[in-house]
Inverse folding.
């Protein structure tokens, strides 16, 4: 079946958050990203250019698999260089209560940049962090830029949105956060438990919010080797440094 003009318009509309929220859908592009997401999300529509995509052999009902040419793909794409496939997936339900079953959680407090959020989710996947809890003013994890930046990691990392201060108050685990007056993350004893706790990362410009700071039980600081060179680390890089330190074995000779 060939894609219709109405379907092209519908897919394009999902680049806007209000339409994604109304339909509870999101868009992913490219064979690799789509292949990673297919086992974890219900597909609503799979659009392939048979000359550039290998996804035409993916098991999918005839009503949900359509073909499109390069021009149609470009009309629907949010990428500077459109790829040969686009998929519309159903979003996961927001389920922050699932956090009670996780021992190691990343919390994001007002992270605004979609590229940063996507990179953070991908980094969590690398370090085995399967749950990310976001404040309601954090970027939408189903924004097309976020989805592409995750490189399929969204399939393995649950992302939920909550009233972050209220949610943190209910938790019974250590709450870590990167603050300028925190303890050097590399000092012995700075991290009480490496496999249990909540790590809070703050907004790109303002850091952790005033409402969340009092709830940090273990403030941490990433020291700069050249303190006069830069003001702060990018939040995605700071997240990677922090998670790497938490995942470092206590015995460095192992």
């Amino acid at each position: 079946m060939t894609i219709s003009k109405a379907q092209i318009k519908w897919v394009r509309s999902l680049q806007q958050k209000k339409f994604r929220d109304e339909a509870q859908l999101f868009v992913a592009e490219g064979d690799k990203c789509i292949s990673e997401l297919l086992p974890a999300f219900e597909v609503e529509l799979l659009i392939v250019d048979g000359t550039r995509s290998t996804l035409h052999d993916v098991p999918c009902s005839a009503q949900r698999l359509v073909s499109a040419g390069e021009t149609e793909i470009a009309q629907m794409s949010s990428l500077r260089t459109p790829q040969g496939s686009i998929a519309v997936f159903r979003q996961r339900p927001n389920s922050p209560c699932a956090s009670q079953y996780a021992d190691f959680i990343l919390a994001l407090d007002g992270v605004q940049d979609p590229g940063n959020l996507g990179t953070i989710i991908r980094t969590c996947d690398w370090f085995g962090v399967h749950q990310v809890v976001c404040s309601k003013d954090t970027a939408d994890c189903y924004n097309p830029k976020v989805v592409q930046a995750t490189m399929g990691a969204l399939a393995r990392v649950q992302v939920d949105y909550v009233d972050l201060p209220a949610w943190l108050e209910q938790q019974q685990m250590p709450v870590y956060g990167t603050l300028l007056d925190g303890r050097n993350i590399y000092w012995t004893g700075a991290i009480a438990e490496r496999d249990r706790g909540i790590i809070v990362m703050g907004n790109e410009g303002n850091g952790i919010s005033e409402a969340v700071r009092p709830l940090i039980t273990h403030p941490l600081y990433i020291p700069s080797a050249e303190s006069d060179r830069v003001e702060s680390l990018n939040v995605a890089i700071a997240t990677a440094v922090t998670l790497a330190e938490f995942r470092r074995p206590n015995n460095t000779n192992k």
